[in-house]
Amino acid sequence: MLSYILRRIVATLPVMAIVALFVFSLLYIAPGDPAVVIAGDQASPEDVERIRQSLGLNRPFLVQFGSWVWRILHGDLGTSIFTNLPVSAMIGQRLGPTLSLMIVTLLLTIVVAVPLGVVAAWKAGSLIDRVIMGFAVFGFSLPVFVVGYMLAYVFALELEWLPVQGYTPLAQGFWPWLENLILPAIALGCVYIALVARITRAAMLEVLQQDYVRTAKAKGLGQGGILFIHALKNAAVPIVTVIGIGIALLIGGAVVTESVFAIPGLGRLTIDAILRRDYPVIQGIVLLFSFVYVLVNLMIDVVYTLVDPRIRY
Amino acid sequence: MDRRTVLKGLAGAGGLALTGGLSAPAIAQGAAARTLRFVPQANLANFDPIWGTQYVVRNAAAMVWDTLYGIDSSFQPQRQMVESEEVTDDGTTWTFKLRPGLKFHDGEPVLSKDVVASLTRWSARDPMGLMIKALQQELTAVDDRTFKWVLKQPFPKLLYALGKNNSPCGFIMPERIAQTDPFKQISEYIGSGPLKFAKSEWVPGAKAVFEKFADYSPRQEKSSWLAGGKQVMVDRVEWVIMPDPATAAAALQNGEIDWWENPIADLVPVLKKNKNISVDIGDPLGNIGSFRMNFLYPPFNDVKARRAVLMALSQEDYMRAIVGDDNSLWKPLPGYFTPDTPLYTEVGGDILKGKRDLDAAKKLLAESGYSGQPVTCLVAQDQPITKAQGDVTADLLKKLGMNVDFVATDWGTVGSRRAQKTPPGQGGWNMFHTWHAGADCVNPAPYTAIRANGDKAWFGWPTSAATEKEVASWFEAKNLDEEKAAIGRLNKAAIDDVVYAPTGFFLSYTAWRKNVSGVAKGPLPFFWGVSKSA
């Protein structure tokens, strides 16, 4: 297993290299100029040109790319054109909020979606099934920002139970940390819950028709034991796959959620950097996201072996 | 590796990131009683007010760095860091003395050498600074508190230049910082203003914190814009960046923030209904909407085509598209200068007044030789003001019979494409939309957009000898009457040649919780004099 993981990690290097080349090339040819944004609206073209020169943006593509790769190989993601801060420090500032949001959303999803899917499969064709699946369609159809605004209006403005916006680090207390994440996690989790619930239902329906489930029933095992110990474990592979793939959905959704709830996470950093054409920051974040995605895929493969002993690498 | 090892590893990694392993901002902490939480107009993405000239940087910088003079609400420069000044009879040699006891935030005294270095850096970037630099014979420190500026010829607007609130302002920094190349960013944010910048708490895009500077010695006069005694009444000012206006509105209603600089017009009715919130016009100098036509290429290289557009445009259409139905938020503007300011004039502005004459405009356009070629119109969709104006312009041009190539893009792309001097079909353009802060349009000194010196002019590169002549006349004017006369002639010349198309004058609101008092109207948010009760 360990050698498999190491082989997979080594295999990510060419993937990351291709991503790096792609991202750099794309930004190079994309319209827009950070020097213009820095100089401000009243700046003269000469000022813009001087700033462009001082930032090294006039250098040929290969020179810029070579120097960027050289820095990356030395563990340096570069310095933000705008803030003059190291990109790694900026990402570090934003990692905590995004990670918190994703973890709470992920936990919420698993706690809500998996039981819903299991119950829907158990009661397939019944009113309960239709209600759950109706909820899933509803959750899947609503844009994140609409859910976010509705939640903020009801639970923050009207009921005054939770804050509208912001983020508090876990180090400053569990409840202050959690109260800022509840509404964003629900807003972000709606689509994800709907997706996982539907996949869980489909996977469970298939498993519940297997002979060993009938045998378990014949042996007199309780319904809970059959559903959650025997059937769910055997239905887990597609569910784990979807949860893993869904992390990519979460990264995309976090961009919107962080804006709606003013959470200072990586999603907002990405948008800000793109709008300002802060190339080093965009490149750093895209590399990070690519790495996370590759890592999540690796983790999914590892989890397969934990839920299904037949899978070995 | 077993299941438990994997789970422990994941929990450990998550815990590290969420607790001690990463520094994370505390945006939503319960605000201390003496903390003012403010939502600015935009993100503070950099903090060098000479290198980056965005308004939001200037607004933050005005807390941290002080100026030698400060413009007051009557547009007059008043002494700020300066105790006294003397000028020779021929107007060429100025000697300034600094106030005693001025200190930087690192505890070092403010000395003349710091002023000389700061003015040298500023004058390399500021339009007025560049004019002074061109006349400069020497700028030297005489002693620790005295410095001398010797010019080759008089520059009557010198004190105005040193105190103006237009970006870049003449902020005074320690010499070691001010010696940074003006086209490179500083990395230390040490000033002598009434608030200190807490760099360690800065999360660009999310939060910026300013703390009261205990050693600041304010002037004794009453504060007025950038002039007078800058008495800070709170211990801490926290800027909370909120990209979503609906979130900012909700946070203000919920008491999570104290002051929102520029609520959008759509949300103002909701805020006005809240008994805990005050809403008022923030900046009485407002903004001037505009679109610029490219003088280098047809059809707008012909003044008849430019006049045809001006003749047909309805400023009311533009203003309603920007501010909606609130009539208190806009005014027609038959000219280029900010209404209700001393130099405001409508001389020569008849073409923008009265009923719009589409037929006459079409006739004039035909006389210009326009033959249906595409008009490349750049419109930034991510800026509500430019998007609204772009939509109105597209409709206007179509009514005139023009073939509109509507380029819907983002502000970053407009910003770089408008600098292209290539023909419209080869990456260039024919027109783009923007707006100008009214504070920049009170006189020609900071008003880059009014200049019409061809290649050296702002994007669109207008050429108008008459306009440039009157700009020079204003700079040479010795009193207000002469200034007014020059501005009248300047307004007429600029409209005759259509340096750009003004689409109207509009204002915006600011909103704050009622436990906050002392919010002053002005071209930027002033934090001195603002207090907050529990």
Molecular structure report:
The complex is a heterodimer of chains A (313) and B (534). Helix content of chain A is 77%, strand content 0%. Chain A has 313 residues and is mainly α. Chain A folds into 2 domains: 2-73, no CATH class; 94-307, Orthogonal Bundle (MetI-like fold), CATH 1.10.3720. Chain A starts with a helix and ends in a 6-residue tail after the last helix. In chain B, 29% of the residues lie in helices and 19% in strands. Chain B has helices at 3-18, 55-64, 112-122, 127-135, 158-163, 175-178, 245-253, 268-273, 303-312, 315-323, 358-367, 384-399, 411-417, 465-476, 480-497, and strands at 35-39, 69-71, 77-79, 82-87, 93-98, 136-143, 146-151, 195-197, 207-212, 236-240, 259-260, 277-281, 287-293, 330-331, 374-380, 403-409, 431-437, 501-506, 509-513, 516-517, 531-532. In chain B, strands 8-9-10-1-11-19-12 form a 7-stranded mixed sheet. In chain B, strands 14-18-13-17-15-16 form a 6-stranded mixed sheet, sandwiched between helices. In chain B, a hairpin with a 5-residue loop joins strand 4 and strand 5 (93-98). In chain B, helix 9 (303-312) runs antiparallel to helix 11. Chain B starts with a helix and ends with a strand. Mean pLDDT of chain B is 91; it is low at 1-30. Classes of the chains: A mainly alpha (313), B alpha+beta (534). At the A-B interface, helix 2, helix 3, helix 5, helix 7 and helix 13 of A face helix 1, helix 7 and helix 13 of B.
Give the gist of this structure.
The complex is a heterodimer of chains A (313) and B (534). Chain A has 313 residues and is an all-alpha fold. Chain A contains 14 helices and no strands.
Helices and strands, with pairings:
The complex is a heterodimer of chains A (about 325) and B (about 525).
Chain A: H1 2-29, H2 34-39, H3 45-54, H4 61-73, H5 87-122, H6 127-141, H7 144-158, H8 174-179, H9 182-208, H10 211-218, H11 223-234, H12 236-260, H13 266-276, H14 279-307
Chain B: H1 3-18, E1 35-39, H2 55-64, E2 69-71, E3 77-79, E4 82-87, E5 93-98, H3 112-122, H4 127-135, E6 136-143, E7 146-151, H5 158-163, H6 175-178, E8 195-197, E9 207-212, E10 236-240, H7 245-253, E11 259-260, H8 268-273, E12 277-281, E13 287-293, H9 303-312, H10 315-323, E14 330-331, H11 358-367, E15 374-380, H12 384-399, E16 403-409, H13 411-417, E17 431-437, H14 465-476, H15 480-497, E18 501-506, E19 509-513, E20 516-517, E21 531-532
Parallel strand pairs in B: 1-10, 1-11, 15-16, 15-17
Antiparallel strand pairs in B: 2-3, 4-5, 5-7, 6-7, 8-9, 9-10, 11-19, 12-19, 13-17, 13-18, 14-18, 20-21
